[in-house]
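Example record for the data management plan.
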Amino acid sequence: MAMTKAKYIWMDGEFVDWDDANIHILSHVIHYGSGVFEGLRCYKTPRGRVIFRLNEHTKRLKNSAKIYRMEVPYTTEELNEVVIELIKRNNLEDAYIRPIVYRGYAELGVNPFNCPVCVSIATLQWGKYLGKEALENGVDVMFSTWNRMAPNTFPAMAKCCANYMNSQLIKMEAITLGFVEGIALDTSGYVSEGSGENIFAIVDGVIHTPPLHASILPGITRHTVMTLAREMGIEVIEEMLVREYLYIADEVFFTGSAAEVTPIRSIDKITIGKGTCGPITKQLQDAFFDVIEGRKEDKHGWLTKVG
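Corresponding structural encoding:
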């Protein structure tokens, strides 16, 4: 899935030409994965450009940095203003937004404390994460042979660059075996999440999803969908799930800032439900996009106008 180059990237207080947005090869983040990041979207709507849950994403970025003892030298408000200004300067109608906080160039040892904390933000055009047809038709996925990290090893609540080496193993395995995505189990064998998405199963009209202690990232789209479902009168239960529960579910779907709300049509070549986007998943998709695209009131204050 190709991304389209924009004009500027913001780096440590400056708007830098895209091709000049470079770091030193001996930067700490390259050698030790010492960075945290976010991914969020700006949508084009009849009411203008809106960024989905900007404040929550920026807060999670700073929380991730806090877990890794990185002092971010900008306030939440300052970073939010940069995102808005960068979208304007890049003249983007819709955009994928990628902020990153990372340890830069100073020393090469594992100890990161003497390396500067750097902050960059990119905005760019980037298509549907799991493919253009995924939202409508669903995707074919597999349970990965790779597990998510155990508690007290890597903090799953931090969206850390290093964690995504695990995600890459899950994703590469799935692709090489002919699937779109993989689902990881936790170290106890319970369902965790996809390589970059949270997961939900629907059985008899009730939505089930793994809890935070299943080594999942606390997804912002996950929280959004749970909120919308409860407002629609649909019960949502956070509980540990065994893999076979997903095989026999009526519907299964992914959520994520990149994946949005993507139905799963098969797992390990076992058809889920009728092998299409199920009725409750479709309801949740519609409710999600109705808010984003301005057809329903943004009563939670989830949208930030670009201007």
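Summary line stored alongside the record: The mean pLDDT is 95.
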